[in-house]
Amino acid sequence: MARIFHRPMAPIVLYVGVLFVLSFTRDNSLQPDILIRIADFLNFPISSDPRTFAGAGLEVSKNGWLTPQSMWIFHLWPPGFAMLLGGIFWLFGVDAPFLAILLALTIAICTFMLMTVRRYLMLHMPPPLATLLPLAPFLFPVTRFFLLQPIGLAFGEGLSVMFFILSIFLLLISVEKKSVSEAVLSGFFLALAAYFRSQYELLTVCMLLGALALIILRLVVNFFPGKSNPPRKPWWGLGLMAVAVLTAQVLMLPWRIHNYIEADKLGWVQTQDLVARNALTSEAALLKNGAKFVIMGGGHLACKFEPDYCGKEDKELFYKAFLQNTGQWLQYKASLLGEYWFPSVEFFPEIVAPDYPGDYFWNSIVLAVALISFFLVFLVRRQQVAVVYFWALASFYGCFTVVFSLVHLEVRYFFLVKIFALFCGIALAAAAWSGRFGAEASRARMGAT
């Protein structure tokens, strides 16, 4: 039986089959039909963002780009998802079941992602376990809901999640195998994630700064060695991390240049301007404009803590209000975290009703995995790999600490954190287990792959 897992096509067939079956599993939530047409989808009672993306895709399919009246969409979101939808409508027609086509594409990308995770796990454990473990995150509602079900497909954010996870595991493989090409490919998928969602651009910046900080620290340690510690060469793992993040930055230059030509700004999107404007708006004005979700997520705090700033549009006042009220601000945001971490997907994209119990079981497990991951880093025996894990965890959670501090909270903002925690937790457990109990077997497998 174990020989099946050694056959090249067997894991692919397994992953495609499982993902296809899981895509027809429906968690309790209002979702469009997978075969819905765009005309009906635009009238479906769903959050405005997916309808905006779908409408932008229609424009792209007809004109090759957005019209000037719709360019605000590319000011708030990068172009990846709208361009993908435009390609689908152009190839298959506007009456095509675009969500079903997105599902087929998602299953293909997700299978590639799972095979990449499997490649990494094969360096640390037997093939049967390495093949089955990548499917474990799909036991959790958040993973199958956001990656495979119609409402998640409509948001398009699952594509970025998969690209980001691909990037992390390709980098881990590159470090294990000392492969520059894998590091470059890691950077490619990191950039691709940013082209589909703006928060990944901030992640790439945090990861670049984190890599530079570790490289500088290592150079300082080498330059000032202790008496009992002879000078050492910098870790080559740090070099591969730099290759990945620099590759991503280079591939992201075209969109930055586009923004500079159009708006004289090198920024990725202009979402932060909207965040600052909302924060400086009174609660009454936000409610009048249908932005209750901004208030619920703590996106109104600049005006709340500094009433004199209300109604002003200077973005500097937003940061000034944060610096003047940092303690209160962070305490207020921290008080909301439980509501946004533990909801059931039944109420997506909203938090649960006050009298409805949240999904405490699955979300508690994810939280435990996220916390345990930091301790598992110290059990990874291979220093080159351990430093990549430390860098990835520190950059990732550091970045989202900044995001959650400044931006209003939404339930879906935590989905990437949860899915990343599950996949990273599995990988860390495998690396820690291999280092502690199976180092020799791990080296033998690595040499065979």
Could you explain the architecture of this structure?
The chain has 449 residues and is an all-alpha fold. The chain has two domains: 2-36 and 97-269 and 325-448, no CATH class; 270-324, no CATH class. Helix content is 69%, strand content 0%. It has helices at residues 9-23, 38-41, 48-63, 72-76, 80-92, 98-121, 127-132, 141-148, 150-155, 157-177, 180-196, 199-223, 236-251, 253-263, 271-279, 283-288, 292-296, 301-305, 315-324, 326-341, 360-376, 383-406, 415-437, 439-448. Helix 3 packs across helix 5 (80-92), helix 10 (157-177) runs antiparallel to helix 22 and helix 12 packs antiparallel against helix 13 (236-251). The radius of gyration is 23 Å and the shape is globular.
Explain briefly what this protein structure is.
With about 450 residues, this protein is mainly α. About 70% of the residues lie in helices and about 0% in strands.
List keywords for this structure.
single chain, 449 residues, mainly alpha, 2 domains, 24 helices, 69% helix, 0% strand, disordered C terminus
Please state the CA-atom Rg, rounded to the nearest Å: 23 Å
> With helices defined by DSSP (H or I, 4 residues minimum), what is the helix count?
24
Mean pLDDT: 89
Q: Report how far apart the termini are.
A: 21 Å
Share of helical residues: 55-70%
Q: Secondary-structure element order, as H and E?
A: HHHHHHHHHHHHHHHHHHHHHHHH
Structural class, judged by helices and strands? mainly alpha
Large-scale geometry:
globular
* Poorly predicted runs: 437-449
The domain count comes to 2
